[in-house]
Write a structure and sequence with these properties.
Largest sheet of chain A: 5 strands, parallel
Largest interface: A-B, 21 and 22 residues
Number of strands of chain B: 0
Order of helices and strands of chain B: HHHHHHHHHHH
Number of strands of chain A: 39
Strand order of the largest sheet of chain A: 9-8-7-10-22
CATH architecture of the largest domain in chain B: Orthogonal Bundle
Helix content of chain B: 40-55%
Strand content of chain B: under 5%
Radius of gyration of chain A: 37 Å
Shape of chain B: globular
Radius of gyration of chain B: 20 Å
Oligomer: heterodimer
Structural class of chain B: mainly alpha
CATH superfamily of the largest domain in chain B: Alpha-helical ferredoxin
Largest sheet of chain B: none
Distance between the termini of chain B: 40 Å
Distance between the termini of chain A: 66 Å
CATH architecture of one domain in chain A: 3-Layer(bba) Sandwich
Structural class of chain A: alpha/beta
Number of helices of chain B: 11
CATH class of the largest domain in chain B: Mainly Alpha
Shape of chain A: globular
CATH topology of one domain in chain A: FAD/NAD(P)-binding domain
CATH topology of the largest domain in chain B: Fumarate Reductase Iron-sulfur Protein, Chain B, domain 2
CATH superfamily of one domain in chain A: FAD/NAD(P)-binding domain
Number of domains of chain B: 2
Chain lengths: ~900, ~200
């Protein structure tokens, strides 16, 4: 293997798969998909340092599940090439997260107690760690695969934990060095604006962010109440962004009140990002709306958050069902009012985070579902009540939710003195002269690149989408930053970017069998009395134990968590987590298929109890157990770590059996004898070997059998019929000793199943790819069972080894050498001799119907530029199927034309 | 014990036995692995193991097979059939042996054959099983005195509702109208006629 790996004329495409084969003998075009290895083969020295800090462990394929390996690993010690590989699969959480934060990575690091590393990892994607850890609507948790075990992980709370525990002691960041001369202006300091600023400043651009309000943070600062997001958490995160070199200009609105205009920004800066948010509240449009006492949630929450005095009455009605409505209601409650939420749909349709709705209810807020105000009543210029009408849900509207319709004459009155309207917000675009708006009153921008129709101007966040969630704004800011970078560098805005990540439902994750259930942890909450009267934070965060226990529930769906620990350890700088799959096109003359076999899975024969005791092993597993590099360092031990006193070996498991495979796997008798010999030699245990016929074919094999008999192995001529796992863990094997004619049993500590060879599960795909036939046993068909055991029916394609049928090592080597010789014989000649019996098209009769193209089993016929059939003589086997299929007799097999056949018949009859 | 040499070529070997018992060729492909024996819950009580029976059938040792106890002890659990690596319908073969033994009037293990007989007779008469009558018929045909020994057990089963009495009594008046035989009688007679044909 080493020699093959080093040979200058052998190019090894490891971690690759053939995806397409075209052409014919001497002229094959093969397309190979190279899976991303995430490790540069030219740099990796195979030192193994990277493995040390990898937090992910999965079953080792090479040790057939007897030991674990890391996500970064070398498949086995002697692997060629000796470089490492990273096992990385899509994960539902990261794929679902709009900002694609490496969720599994920071969870793995939290699980290992590396909280500062977890924080640093999240900060590579977003600066809003503590903020998103509190206010995110966490769509990731809805898709977390752990939900199929009992409940999804508390991902959001874990992110908050990483921030709370590590941020206070983390060193302040140093300003980032300017790499590029260009400056970018950003309008709005909300999550979209600051996320773009954070990414751009780290790329090395000059960034200035304009803010109309006296505080930075956008809706995070003035929309979300302090009991959900304490002011100091947000401020620290904004300070972190500023410390990197981002300039923030507060109290500087754009296009009004004397601030610069968009035109000014476009002139003074090289690019502009508009992230103005959606701060203008929608009107109710009902009579009485202008009465004092009617407030809008945006104004109410902004005033509260800015510390201004807010006057509301004793009985407050909040209209709406979004997060802003819940925030306004819970804030009003904290000011001492009695609060009722009026929402026109039912609870299930509320866009607010369900946990927030629950918290509001717990705190004593009343709900009026399926109702909407029709009039606000007043007396002497003061509000007295609100008249509502009941609604019912009709047909779904364009948003997919059922449209509420008023129920006639169902009006009722709520006695209230304050109404807080929270039925939606829009961006205020009036001051931004020159931009384009949609019919919804939002900014026009490409949803992928965030580019607006105006040159050099990008837009994102609520201003584009309408009111959405913080994490969507973060995602938009990140996309805009990448686009602005590409714009400023003159690169294509789209090329090579992934805008659509795999849907969580399409990501296959196997949940390990026998996984133990572990309840999802919930954060402790502030006592109710304090919740109702103060703006102190309600959720108290995880303790260290809670966080570690919660992190331990992660299923590691992606295997590699992208925690980047290996990158830090690799001195050769060989690791690149951003590698993508590549395609390689090869021109080859011949092909040798050597795809091997599959080990029979004995769970298909339940009588052998495989999987019900760790001491029932397949031949392959026992083989690993006896290897010096294996899980026990080569000692033969039971799962309990003891030397077995008695061992049973059962032949023909999955072979010579109509209930599994009919064929004899040929190698098992000999490997079973070897196992028996090893057990006798290394442990001295009694060995009971159950066989039907001993197939010791060929040179030296019978002699070995004789030696193993003399070793003292007790051979029982009878099929090992069943294995029962006794309560004390002992294994009872039953059979008939057919020489004695008596039923027998053996009680042992370990059972080795002589599992057979079968065709690989993907043999069908491989067969189609290379145009191979398959025999009834599933293996690839050779051209002739006796005379052409290496060739296939597709010329130029040869078989080597167990993909053609069960065989042992010496026979495989011989077969492979034969395949190499056959391939060389063809190539050294450089020409192919074909039979003259090929099909011929009589062009003047051919109508170009294409029936022959479909009928040809060798893909030898195609339609040419004139729309006539054309035969590739190198592929044609002269089978005549096309001649039978042709409706106009326009294609004939040479030497077997109708005239020739008739002449022959006439000759016979004479 | 002496071992008599079995002459495989002797004319006494019934060369059609295999054909009659197992008309499809599957049984010929038996590899004598003993899976049937090791899967059989009754093998411990048999005089020949099931595997040995197949061998004897293959070689046409008809009288030895038909006089053996083995096939009478089969409880038709089908474990051997399910596991047989050659896919031989072994339980059906056992059924064929039972039918042939009864047809040939081999009475050596009449406990079993009489039990089947008692069951079929009661079904023939009433179209269903009268448990008490079936047991009475069985004991009368084998060992009437044994009934006395089983009386306490029978009473206990009666009081616990594990066996019922009176199915036959309920049916009796209708049987009088049919001349003493049940409606299934015609069916049984027809089957007997068919089986009697060579």
């Amino acid at each position: 293997m080493m020699d093959a790996g080093r040979h200058p004329n052998i190019e090894l495409l490891s971690y690759s798969a053939v995806v397409d084969v075209q052409g014919y003998v001497g002229n094959f075009q093969v397309r190979v998909k190279k899976k991303p290895r995430y490790i540069d083969l030219t740099k990796c020295t195979g030192c193994g340092e990277c493995v040390k800090e990898c937090p992910v462990e999965v079953d080792s394929e090479f040790e057939v599940g007897l030991t674990k390996r890391k996500a970064i690993y070398r498949p086995f010690a002697q692997a060629i090439p000796p470089a490492f590989v990273i096992d990385k699969r899509p994960s539902p959480c990261k794929s679902t997260c709009p900002a694609h934060i490496p969720v599994q990575g920071y969870i793995a690091l939290i699980g290992q107690g590396k909280y500062d590393k977890a924080l640093a990892l999240i900060r590579e994607t977003t600066a809003f760690v503590g903020t998103l850890g509190r206010v995110c609507h966490h769509p990731c948790e809805l898709e977390c695969k752990r939900k199929d075990v009992e409940a999804p992980l508390a991902i959001c709370a874990l992110k908050r934990f990483a921030y709370d525990v590590a941020a206070p002691t983390a060193p302040p960041p140093a300003p980032v060095e300017r790499v590029y001369g260009e400056k970018v202006a950003i309008v709005g300091t909300g999550p979209a604006g600051l996320s773009a600023a954070y990414d751009l400043v780290r790329m090395g651009y000059g960034v200035t962010v304009y803010e109309a309000l006296p505080v930075a943070g956008g809706m995070l600062a003035v929309g979300i109440p302090a009991y959900r997001l304490p002011k100091d958490v947000l401020q620290q995160e904004i300070d972190y962004i500023k410390a990197l070199g981002v300039e923030i200009k507060l109290n500087t609105p754009i296009g009004r009140d004397g601030g610069p205009t968009l035109e000014d920004l476009r002139r003074d800066y090289d690019a502009v990002f508009l992230a103005v948010g959606a701060h203008r509240s929608r009107q109710l449009n009902v009579p009485g709306e202008d009465l004092p006492g009617v407030l809008h949630s945006t104004d109410f929450l902004r005033a509260l958050n800015l510390g201004q005095e807010v006057k509301i009455g004793k009985r407050v009605a909040v209209i709406g069902g979004g997060n802003a409505a819940i925030d306004a209601a819970r804030s009003a409650l904290r000011l001492g009012s009695q609060v009722t939420i009026v929402y026109r749909r039912s609870r299930a349709e509320m866009p607010a985070i369900p946990a927030e709705v629950d918290a509001a209810e717990e705190e004593g807020i009343a709900f009026h579902f399926l109702a909407t105000p029709v009039r606000i009543l007043g007396e002497n210029g003061r509000m007295t009540a609100m008249e509502c009408i009941r609604m019912e849900l009709g047909a779904p509207d364009e948003s997919g939710r059922r449209r509420p319709v008023p129920v006639p004459s169902s009006e009722f009155t709520l006695e209230v003195d304050t109404v807080i309207v929270s039925i939606g917000q829009q961006p205020d675009l009036a001051p931004l002269a020159g931009v384009e708006a949609t019919g919804w009153g939002t900014l026009t921008a490409d949803p992928d690149t965030m580019a607006t129709p105006v040159e050099g101007v990008f837009a994102g966040g609520d201003a584009v989408t309408g009111p959405a969630s913080a994490v969507w704004a973060v995602a938009a800011g990140k996309r805009a930053a990448e686009s602005i970078h590409r714009y400023l560098r003159g690169l294509d805005l789209r090329q090579g970017r992934v805008f659509e990540w795999p849907k969580a439902a399409d990501i296959q994750v196997e949940i390990p069998a026998g996984i133990e259930k572990a309840a999802r942890r919930e954060m402790a909450a502030l006592p109710m009395a304090e919740r109702k009267s103060t703006f102190k934070e309600v959720e108290l965060g995880f303790t260290e134990e809670e966080a570690r226990a919660e992190a331990a529930r992660c299923l590691s769906c992606a295997v590699c968590s992208e925690c980047q620990e290996c990158v830090k350890l690799c001195e050769a700088k060989a690791i690149d987590h951003n590698m993508r799959e590549e395609f390689v096109d090869l021109e080859v003359g011949t092909i040798i298929v050597a795809t091997g076999f599959a080990d029979f899975d004995p769970t298909r024969l339940p009588q052998y109890s495989y999987g019900r005791s760790p001491n029932i092993l397949t031949g392959m597993e026992f083989e690993r157990l006896t290897s010096a590099g294996g899980p026990t360092g080569g000692e033969i031990l039971t799962a309990e770590g003891k030397v077995p006193e008695r061992v049973a070996i059962i032949h023909c498991v999955g072979s010579r059996d109509v209930n599994a495979n009919r064929h004899c796997s040929r190698v098992c008798c000999m490997y079973a004898l070897k196992h028996a010999h090893l057990v006798r030699e290394m442990t001295g245990a009694e060995v009971y070997e159950f066989y039907m016929d001993m197939r010791t074919f060929g040179k030296g094999y019978e002699e070995f059998y004789e030696r193993v008999q003399e070793d003292g192995v007790i051979f029982v001529r009878g099929r090992g019929t069943e294995v029962r796992v006794r309560e004390d863990g002992k294994l009872v094997v039953r059979a008939e000793d057919t020489n004695l004619g008596r039923p027998v049993s053996a009680t042992v500590d370990m059972v080795i199943l002589g599992t057979g060879m079968e065709a690989r599960p993907d043999a069908d795909q491989v067969a189609r790819l290379f145009g191979l036939g398959r025999t009834a046993d599933g293996f690839f068909a050779e051209a002739h069972p006796k005379l052409r055991p290496v060739e296939t029916n597709t010329e130029g394609v040869f078989l080597a080894g167990t993909c053609q049928g069960p065989r042992d090592v010496p026979d495989t080597v011989a077969h492979a050498s034969a395949a190499a010789a056959q391939a060389l014989a063809l190539m050294s000649k450089g020409v192919v001799t074909i039979s003259p019996t090929v099909s011929h098209v009589l062009t003047r009769f051919c109508t170009g119907c294409g029936k022959c193209v479909l009928a040809c089993p060798y893909n030898a016929i195609s339609l040419n530029g004139d729309g006539k059939a054309e035969v590739n003589a190198a592929l044609c086997k002269g089978c005549g199927t096309c001649a039978a299929a042709c409706p106009s007799d326009a294609i004939v097999p040479l030497h077997f034309t109708d005239d020739q056949l008739v002449a022959q018949i006439v000759g016979v009859l004479q | 014990m002496t071992q008599e040499i079995l002459d495989l070529t002797a004319p006494t070997r019934d060369r059609s036995f295999l054909e009659v018992i197992a008309p499809d060729e599957k049984l010929r492909a038996c590899i004598q692995c003993g899976t049937c024996t090791a899967s059989c819950a009754s093998a411990y009580a048999m005089d020949y193991t099931p595997r040995q029976i197949w061998r004897m059938v293959q070689l046409g040792l008809r009288d030895e097979v038909l006089n053996s106890k083995t096939f009478w002890l089969c409880s038709t659990c089908y474990a051997c059939t399910v596991r047989c690596p050659r896919g031989i319908p072994l339980t059906e073969t056992i059924g064929a042996l039972k039918r042939m033994a009864i047809a040939r009037g081999i009475r050596r293990y009449k406990e079993s054959s009489n039990f089947y007989r008692a069951f079929m007779d009661v079904v023939r008469r009433y179209g269903r099983v009268d448990e008490l009558e079936m047991m009475v018929r069985y004991f009368l045909s084998t060992n009437p005195l044994a009934m006395i020994g089983y009386t306490p057990l029978g009473l206990a089963m009666l009081t616990h509702g594990k066996v019922t009495v009176g199915e036959g009594l309920r049916m009796a008046p209708r049987l009088v109208g049919m001349g003493g035989t049940g409606r299934l009688d015609a069916l049984f007679r027809r089957v007997a006629e068919l089986e009697a044909k060579p």
